[in-house]
Design a protein that fits this description.
By secondary structure, this protein is of the alpha+beta class. It contains eight helices and ten strands. The N and C termini lie far apart (100 Å).
Length: 301
């Protein structure tokens, strides 16, 4: 059985080439000369036969119309694709007043930088958590032939591919990693943004479009889990703070005992040493201010 996919014709990729056009200022002089010739005919109306006068006017009018129909304007960073009966004949990127044969069709396209911010979309990250993402992308057309003839609507194509790329990158990494052992969307913003740009360039190459800059403008947990994730982040922060506090307290207690022993300030047995460690840890790790108790007796009372 014949594979229908292999039988389907492959997409013909277009490629931009330079069009054979001319500066419009030289042809403007030709139009002025034709107009002057037409005006001269009226000064000779009594000196030449009528058929010569009429023919003179007709030729001057045709010349003026022919020249005027070939004019078109291009602003800086604009281009015009030239078509002859549907066949691509090249692209003109020279700005100013331009001229080409009147029967050629000119399709103007902008090659300026475009800035767009995508809509917020909901994506499942690497761990399956729903998150909301939006991206800002600066793109521009580099190949006018591909943009016009290889995709149906290159601006709509850009919008769809941006959303697809954001979904791809969003599902490739977790939103956050509290142990800081892997790349995350929130913790490695520049690296993930670079991968998003690479993904977009690969997707938009078929349309002759490149991406100059991109980044995330919105990145957050979805509303249905935002509260739970906030409590989780708070708990992780409390645990991390407690861990740092305990490590510091242990170091201070160890330093205090070592100095007391080194300077022979007091000699403690194991039981009293453990009691002092317990008291110091309570003082250093407690959240409330301690209330000291003065012992007026001996150390063992």
């Amino acid at each position: 059985m014949t594979d229908l996919r292999s039988a389907a014709p492959a997409l013909r990729h277009s490629s931009e080439s330079a069009a054979q056009t001319a500066s419009g200022y030289g042809m403007l002089l030709v139009a002025v000369a034709a107009l002057a010739a037409g005006g001269l005919a009226f000064t000779q109306v009594d000196r030449v036969p009528d058929w010569v006068f009429i023919g003179w006017l007709v030729l001057a009018s045709v010349a003026i119309a022919f020249v005027l129909c070939g004019f078109y304007l291009l602003q800086p960073n604009q281009a015009a694709a030239i078509l002859l009966f549907g066949d691509y004949r090249g692209t003109d990127r020279s700005s100013g007043l331009r001229w080409s044969w009147p029967w050629l069709i000119k399709k103007t396209i902008s090659v300026r930088a475009n800035n767009m911010i995508s809509d917020k979309i909901k994506v499942n990250d690497l761990r399956g958590n729903p998150i909301e993402m939006a991206a800002q992308v600066v793109w521009r057309v580099t190949d006018t032939a591909q943009a016009l003839f290889d995709v149906d609507d290159y601006k709509a194509f850009v919008n769809v591919q941006i959303e697809a790329a954001v979904r791809t990158i969003g599902s490739r990494y977790p939103y956050d990693d509290f142990e800081h052992q892997e790349i995350t969307l929130r913790g490695n913003h520049d690296q993930v943004g670079g991968e998003l740009r690479t993904e977009l360039i690969a997707r938009l190459a078929v349309a002759g479009i490149t991406v100059d800059e991109c980044g995330f403008t919105h990145l957050a947990y979805a509303q249905e889990i935002a509260g739970a994730m906030l409590r989780r982040q708070q708990a992780q922060a409390v645990v991390a703070a407690r861990k740092a506090l305990v490590e510091g307290a242990v170091g201070m207690v160890e330093m205090a005992l070592d100095q007391l022993s080194a300077k022979n300030v007091v000699e403690l047995d194991d039981e009293r040493r453990a009691a002092m460690v317990s008291n110091l840890m309570v003082v250093l790790c407690g959240e409330r201010d301690t209330q000291p108790v003065v012992n007026a007796g001996s150390l063992y009372q």
